[in-house]
Design brief:
38% of the residues lie in helices and 16% in strands. It is an alpha/beta fold. Helix 6 packs across helix 8.
C-alpha cells in the first residue's frame, strides 16, 4: 500500500515524500481510513509505530476538506486538539504537524506546555491557528484564563493516554473533554489497554473502532538485549564505566529511577571523563531544551534520564540504552529500549539486575515474551547472594552537592 491510497491531498503527499516516507506502517494503514470516515478510534500502539502520522495526516486532510466558515462566524480556538503527557512529547508532535503541513502555509500549529513562558504562549494563542498540541495542566491554566476556547474542536486526540493517567491527569483530561463539543471525533492512543484506560475510553468514545498493533518494539529483532546481575550500587558504577568506554557506543541513554540519582550519576560519569548530562522533571524547560539540543548535536554522549523526562526523545544516533535501575512497570522497559534501534537501525539494551529486582525482570520477560541473555564480564562478576555486601544501602552519593556542575562544560 502507498500513501496516495490513504491520503488524497497533493500538498500533504508532497510533504510525506520529502520526509522520506515510503510505505505506511500498520497503524497508519488501519487508522487513517477509519479516521477519515469519522469513526472514533481506540488504538493500542507503542511509540515508534508511526502513530503521530496516523492521527495527524487525516486530521490535516479533514481540516482542508471542511467548508470555509461564513464571515463573521466565531473562528477562535483550534479545530484539532492533541493532548499529550509531557512537554517533550508535545514539542515532538507539534514539530511533526508542522512538517506535514509545510506546504500549507495557512495551517498553523500551536504548542503549549508547562515550564515555558506564558507571554510567548499568549502571543501564539492570540493569532488564528488550527491545531493545538498541549499538556493537560498548562491547557487548563489557559482555559481558566479564558485564552483558549474548545467549542470549535472537531477532532480530539489523546496520545499516550496510559501515561497521562499514570501521571495523575485523569481529572484534568475529563474536564478538558467536557469543554469540547459532543459532536467531536475522539481518537485515543495508548501503549496498553489497562483498566483505567478502558474506563476513560468508555466515557469519552462513541462506538469506537478498536485497533491493536503488535509493536516492533515488542519483537525487538533489531535490538540486542542483555543483562548483568549486580551486587549493589558500586558494582553498577563499575559496570557502567566499563561499558561506556566501549568506542562502539555512539550515544547512550542511562535510565535511573529517581531525579536525584539522575543528577548524581551524571556528575559521577562526568568526573570519570564521560560527556554526560542529566534530564529529569525538576529541571527548568530552558535546561531541558538545552540538553536535548546538545544531545542532538552529539555534544552529549551519555544522557542520564528518568522515564517521564525521556518521553518524546527520538534521536537516531542513540546506539545503546542502559537500565541502571529496572523500571517497576514492564511497559516502561519496552518504551526505554525503544529509544535505540530507531528507523530500522541496530541497537543494544543493557540492564543491571540486583537479586532483589529479579521479580521485576520476570515481569519484563513475561510481558515481552523474551528471555534476556545474561552477560558476565571477567573481573566484574557478581558475588554470590550470601556474600553480597548490599552496597546499594550505603548510598555513597546521597550527599552530592554538585547538582548543576554538569552545565559548566557547555
Amino acid at each position: 500500500m502507498q500513501f496516495n491510497e490513504l491520503i488524497s491531498h497533493p500538498k500533504i503527499l508532497l510533504a510525506i515524500q520529502e520526509m522520506g516516507y515510503v510505505e505506511p506502517t500498520d497503524i497508519q494503514q488501519k487508522a487513517i481510513p477509519k479516521i477519515l470516515e469519522g469513526s472514533d478510534i481506540f488504538a493500542s500502539a507503542e511509540t515508534g509505530t508511526g502513530k503521530t502520522a496516523a492521527f495527524m495526516l487525516p486530521s490535516l486532510q479533514k481540516i482542508l476538506s471542511a467548508p470555509i466558515p461564513p464571515k463573521g462566524s466565531n473562528n477562535r480556538g483550534p479545530l484539532v486538539l492533541v493532548l499529550v503527557p509531557t512537554r517533550e512529547l508535545a514539542m515532538q508532535v507539534a514539530a511533526e504537524a508542522i512538517k506535514y503541513s509545510k506546504h500549507l502555509p495557512h495551517i498553523k500549529t500551536v504548542c503549549i506546555f508547562g515550564g515555558a513562558s506564558y507571554s510567548n504562549q499568549h502571543k501564539d494563542l492570540s493569532r488564528p491557528y488550527h491545531i493545538l498540541v498541549a499538556t493537560p495542566g498548562r491547557l487548563m491554566d489557559h482555559m481558566q484564563q479564558g485564552r483558549i476556547l474548545l467549542s470549535r474542536i472537531e477532532t480530539l486526540i489523546l496520545d499516550e493516554a496510559d501515561r497521562m493517567l499514570d501521571m495523575g491527569f485523569i481529572d484534568a483530561v475529563e474536564m478538558i473533554v467536557k469543554a469540547t463539543p459532543k459532536s467531536r471525533q475522539t481518537l485515543l492512543f495508548s501503549a496498553t489497554m489497562e483498566k483505567k484506560v478502558l474506563y476513560l475510553s468508555n466515557k469519552i468514545l462513541t462506538n469506537p473502532v478498536e485497533i491493536a498493533i503488535e509493536s516492533t518494539s515488542f519483537k525487538q529483532e533489531n535490538i540486542i538485549q542483555t543483562l548483568h546481575y549486580v551486587d549493589g550500587l558500586e558494582h553498577k558504577y563499575q559496570l557502567l564505566d566499563h561499558h561506556l568506554k566501549d568506542p562502539n557506543i555512539t550515544q547512550a541513554i542511562v535510565f535511573t529511577s529517581t531525579k536525584h540519582q539522575a543528577d548524581a550519576l551524571a556528575d559521577k560519569l562526568y568526573e570519570l571523563g564521560h560527556q554526560a548530562a542529566a534530564l529529569h522533571g525538576d529541571m527548568s524547560q530552558r535546561e531541558r531544551t538545552r540538553t536535548m539540543m546538545e544531545l542532538r548535536k552529539e555534544r552529549i554522549r551519555v544522557l542520564v534520564a528518568t522515564d517521564v523526562a525521556s518521553r518524546g526523545i527520538d534521536v537516531l544516533t542513540i546506539s545503546h540504552v542502559i537500565n541502571f535501575d529496572l523500571p517497576a512497570c514492564a511497559g516502561d522497559y519496552v518504551h526505554r529500549i525503544g529509544r535505540t534501534g530507531r528507523a530500522g537501525a541496530c541497537g543494544t539494551a543493557l540492564s543491571f539486575v540486583s537479586f532483589k529486582d529479579k521479580h521485576l525482570l520476570k515481569r519484563i520477560e513475561i510481558f515481552t515474551g523474551q528471555k534476556i541473555t545474561t552477560q558476565v564480564i571477567p573481573g566484574l562478576e557478581p558475588k554470590k547472594r550470601s556474600e553480597n555486601k548490599r552496597s546499594s544501602d550505603k548510598r555513597p552519593f546521597s550527599n552530592n552537592k554538585s547538582k548543576r556542575k554538569v552545565w559548566k562544560r557547555f
